[in-house]
Specification:
Layout (H helix, E strand, L loop, with lengths): L2 H15 L12 H5 L16 H10 L11 H15 L3 H4 L6 H9 L6 H8 L3 H11 L13 H20 L2 H4 L5 H28 L3 H10 L2 H13 L2 H4 L5 H21 L4 H9 L11 H19 L28
Helix pairs in contact: 1-11, 3-15, 3-17, 4-13, 4-15, 6-9, 7-9, 8-9, 11-12, 11-13, 11-17, 12-16, 12-17, 13-15, 15-16, 16-17
């Protein structure tokens, strides 16, 4: 079984059954939210400034840094990655989405678009038609009679089902990339973090009364550049011969470039403009630059989800990275199920 064929079914099972999981926050009653109005749930100042580089290093399996300058191979890898982000090579590494997917994303955010219009859009792509009908006939929906028309399938799935399907298909180009050693080592943790980030973003969006689908999708793809970047590192390093990079500055710069990569990918894929903007805002090194509400939600979800993975027992999180349990956001209902 290939790498992508192993992880895709597992992720699909999660995305269509996540409502049964204990750690998934449900919509929050207003009386509970009112107790936390004094807390800025989108403030990320509580997190250590080097959380990003520590997380990226841990993701690859590096627990001990070597406080040395960049090696020539590390420098060359970063240069190659930056050139790929800036140049025309990006879409040679990350294939394009089917044109219908960005169109559906826009339609699914428009409450005036009806089922009939959605069905007409889906009909333009035979592959998508097959996906929709296949999902409608899956055991999850427990239909007694087989559905054969796209109109029936769209009616059964509804907007929520179509949103989940669109989110799933958005990852096909990445999942289908040929995995190397580094990618295989990191994929499970990266998907776990992406899932948690998406859920936290959706909960925060519900709290802030903004588009929960956009927040969920933005959180899900916020680190898509990391996986693409790791795929590139597989081409630059012979892990079996020389191991993985161990200088801290390498992971700091890699994390910055990976955020640029995420923004470049969703731009090329013509995601909805608020999502493109939110991911562009993640590339700003200056923390004082104002962000959109969706940008702040993505930043908060990204920080929390990465911190959660590092905080899990046996993750060897340095004591200096631990956030005090006295910090008010720790007990906020958008975060507490994960922390």
């Amino acid at each position: 079984m290939t790498h992508s064929n192993y992880w895709l079914p597992r992720w699909l099972y999660w995305i269509f059954h996540h409502h049964n999981q204990k750690n998934v926050p449900k919509p929050l009653p207003q009386h509970i939210l009112n107790l936390h109005t004094a807390v800025d749930v989108l403030d990320v100042q509580w997190y250590p400034s080097d959380l990003e580089s520590i997380y990226t290093a841990w993701l690859i399996g590096v627990n001990d840094f070597c406080d040395l300058p960049l090696t020539d191979s590390e420098t060359n890898a970063l240069v190659s990655l930056q050139q790929m982000v800036n140049g025309l090579e990006t879409m040679q590494v990350v294939p394009r989405l089917p044109a219908i997917i960005p169109q559906l994303m826009h339609s699914l955010r428009d409450d005036t678009v009806g089922i009939a219009q959605l069905a007409q859009q889906i009909k333009r792509d035979p592959v998508l038609v097959g996906e929709v009908i296949c999902l409608a006939n899956s055991p999850y929906y427990r239909r007694q009679h087989k559905i054969s028309s796209i109109e029936q399938a769209v009616l059964l799935l509804g907007q929520n089902g179509l949103r989940q399907l669109v989110s799933r298909i958005a990852f096909y180009p990445i999942l289908n990339l040929r995995a190397g050693t580094i990618t295989r080592l990191t994929s499970e943790h990266l998907w776990t973090q992406s899932e948690q980030c998406a859920l936290i973003c959706r909960c925060l969006a519900d709290h802030k009364k903004v588009d929960t689908f956009a927040a969920y999708l933005a959180g899900l793809v916020a680190n898509i550049g990391v996986l693409s970047g790791l795929h590139c590192l597989d081409q630059c390093f012979n892990v079996r011969a020389s191991g993985v990079p161990r200088t801290p500055i390498f992971y700091t710069r890699f994390a910055q470039i990976a955020k640029q990569f995420s923004h470049r990918i969703v731009t090329e894929w013509t995601f909805p403009e608020p999502i493109i903007l939110a991911l562009r805002e993640q590339t700003d090194v200056d923390a004082t630059v104002p962000q959109s509400i969706l940008g702040r939600i993505v930043s908060a979800g990204d920080h929390c989800s990465k911190y959660c993975l590092l905080k899990t027992p046996m993750r060897l999180l340095p004591m200096r990275l631990l956030v005090s349990t006295q910090q008010p956001f720790i007990n906020h209902p958008c975060y507490s199920p994960f922390l």
